[in-house]
Amino acid sequence: MRILDRYITTSVIKIFVFTILTFCFLYVLIDITSQLDEFIDRKVPIDILIQYYISYFPIILSQPISSVACLIAVLFTFSNLNTGNEVVAMRSSGLNFWQITKPAIVFGLIISVLVFWVNERLVPRATEVTQQIRDENMVLLVDRLRKKNEKIKHLTFYGLKNRLYFIDTFDSKANELKGITIIEHDQKQNMKQKIVALKSVWTGIAWKFYQCQITTFDRENLSTPLKIKVYKEKLMDIKESPQDFLNQRLNVNSMNIRQLDDYIDRFSKSGAQKALNNMRVDLHQKIAYPFGNFVIVLIGLPFALMIRSRKGSTFISLGIALILGFLYYVANAVALAFGKSGLIPPIFSAWATPVLFTIVALVIIETDFSN
């Protein structure tokens, strides 16, 4: 590594680590302050709080603060180099934009890969652990009862007998299901049976389905059902109780890419297109999201090299970082909303913002730094 690259990389890393730690400290401080009364009422021990926030750290790191911290580190480093005329000296010596910014670009790629790894390896487990700590130590009995009595929309999970469930609405207080689709697979994941019902009520020992249709398929010819039976009312052989439905609801954050892709594959023959579309958007977002760190650094670099003012350069860099970060994540949220509404394909909704901002960054770089 060149001395210049090492010099720039060291500065970027120092500022990035300091910014991440500052953001984490502020996040924890604000979160504790906002819930202080509740923690006191629940008499949550200090060691439980420490364990909770340590477990929560991977989730914090996977949020936009990593991208903003990365951008701030790059902007501060290069604006300082620029105000000290060091960038002018580099360009005078024959170095082009890419040679000057290579350490920052490589750093952005490394952070993207790191966030991807954290999302895949640490976040699913951290989500489960923090939720368990919260449920056991930070939630009052009255809150648990309220949560137990809430209505759950679009409930999906994989249950016993190789069955995949999709429920439009689950009223946990009345123990009633509405808009039911159940896909049963054989051991080779071929669709064996499809159950559709208008609603179902828990009798205390079994689920009673109303306006129920049961379709049995031949695994070698799924297009032609073997038989179709329709029932006005039917007691179903379903072992899951209402509590099982509450405990097994799908949480995308607790699944990695492989698990979610496998879940989508099993769910693909359910006919529940809206739920499938939402999960496909989430799947592509899990892949595209980490690379926002690289993209936001790439689009921030031209602005960092444009800052010439010695006075207030720190505040200018911080302002640019906040504006770019805000624009990036607003655009990404809009694209994801369009994807989940079905207006654009899932893969496009996840990758539209990274690709668009990359193109804008390359255009700016080519326009202002081509010479």
Structure in a nutshell:
The chain has 371 residues and is α+β, with helices and mostly antiparallel strands.
Main beta sheet strand tally, sense and closure: 6 strands, antiparallel
Q: Runs with pLDDT <50, length 5+?
A: none
Helix content: 55-70%
Oligomeric state of this protein: single chain
Shape: elongated
Q: Mean pLDDT, nearest integer?
A: 81
Helix-strand makeup class:
alpha+beta
Number of helices: 13
- The share of residues in extended strands comes to 15-25%
Compressed to H and E, one letter per element, the order equals HHHHHHHEEEEEEHHHHHH
Give the beta-strand count.
6
Radius of gyration: 26 Å
Taken together, the total number of domains comes to 2
Alpha-carbon distance between the termini?
Answer: 25 Å
Adjacency order of strands in the biggest sheet: 1-2-3-4-5-6
